[in-house]
Amino acid sequence: MEIDGHAISKEIIEHLKELPKPEKIFAAILIGEDSRSISFLRQKEQVAKELGIDFRLYELAPELGNDGLRQEVRRLVKKSSVGGAIVQLPLPEGINSSYVLNAIPREKDVDVLSERALGAFYKNRNPVLPPAVVTVKTILDKVSFDLAKADVAVVGLGTLVGRPVGLWLTGKCKELHLLGRNSDLAILSTADIVISGVGKAGVIRVDMLKKGVGVIDFGYYYFPDGEVSGDFSPDKAEQLSFYTPTPGGTGPILVAELFRNFYILTSPGK
Predict the structure, then answer these.
(1) Residue 186 has pLDDT above 70, yes or no
(2) pLDDT for 230 beyond 60
(3) Contact between 28 and 258 (Cβ < 8 Å)
(4) Helices assigned H by DSSP within the chain
(5) Is 238 helix (H, G, I), strand (E, B) or coil?
(6) Distances (CA, A) of 245 to 22, 28, 154, 253
(7) Alpha helix stretches (DSSP H) within 52-114
């Protein structure tokens, strides 16, 4: 079964429309001119328009350097009119992502990427979950998957997907395999669920997996001709229980969950 990320995203957005609309600004900060970043921000801007959210894009030059960028991000997001903020990743080469992201206060960090927000998430004290984590949870709920009986493999242990998803899964499944850059992917043949966020086209193939497995793919790889691929190559996908296509799978859900986080962080009783 192919997971329709657009349909799930629409359900989330329709639910948010029924809630009181946040009157605060959603601040999105773009550093540099990465085409992937611009594409992702357009998707977020479109959802904001649909929800009637005041979405404002602030463009900063990489030439400001780490200290200058951190100061500018702090200045922009500390305003009382701003309810939530993101710094769109990836950042240009030479910019320290963690250093810049830490300028976002925890109570406005909708991406849950600053050290304070991540620390609170690790201790189960943050008001919102990382968007990738909620996306996984939403998909598993949608297919009525029982994690407690599952052997789960997480491929790629990056800050955006693998690390937070792996932490959230700890203690929730029968067996958990966390696979980094040099890990042997042969273990995937035992997994009931594979969650990937590598960003390398076709690194996971159907012939590496057992029949009936579910695949949640966050990977995005851009070919020179503009084509987009995920980590998973869905040939013979009929052998799977379910999978997320790229594009149109996890991406739309993740964006919708980002706005759900914004609603939670700006709600009076949070």
Answers:
(1) yes
(2) yes
(3) no
(4) 5-17, 35-51, 65-77, 97-101, 115-122, 131-142, 162-169, 250-266
(5) helix
(6) 32, 26, 17, 12
(7) 65-77, 97-101
Contact 218, 132 (CB under 8 A): yes
Residues 73-123: pLDDT tens digits? Answer: 999 999 999 999 999 998 999 999 999 999 999 999 999 999 999 999 999
Tokens of 261: 């986080």
Q: Is residue 63 helix, strand or coil?
A: helix
User: Do residues 250 and 4 touch, judged by C-beta distance below 8 A?
Assistant: no
Q: Say how far apart CA 213 and CA 233 lie, in whole Å.
A: 14
Between CA 2 and CA 243 the distance in angstroms is 5
| DSSP E strand boundaries for 122-224 | 151-155, 175-179, 193-196, 204-205, 214-217, 221-222
Q: Which of 23, 19, 15, 88 is nearest to 53 (CA)?
A: 23
Structure tokens at 152: 């789960």
Phi and psi angles of residue 257, each rounded to the nearest 5 degrees, phi first: -65, -30
Distances (CA, A) of 112 to 36, 126, 160, 180, 183: 20, 9, 9, 21, 27
Report the b/e string of 113-142 with b at 16+ CB within 10 A: bbeebbebbeeeebbbbbbbbbbbbbbbee
**Tokens, residue 168:** 């959230």
The mean pLDDT value for 45-49 works out to 98
Q: Is residue 255 a contact partner of residue 50, using CB atoms and an 8 Å limit? A: no
- Residue 190 tokens, joined: 């035992």
Number of continuous H segments (helices) and E segments (strands) in the chain: 8, 12
The pLDDT of residue 74 is 98
Query: What's the rounded Cα separation, in Å, for the pair 84 and 68?
Result: 21
How far apart are the C-alpha atoms of 169 and 180, rounded to whole Å? 16
Q: How confident is the model at residue 200 (pLDDT cuts 50, 70, 90)?
A: very high
Q: What is the rounded distance in angstroms from the CA atom of residue 62 to the CA atom of residue 71? A: 13
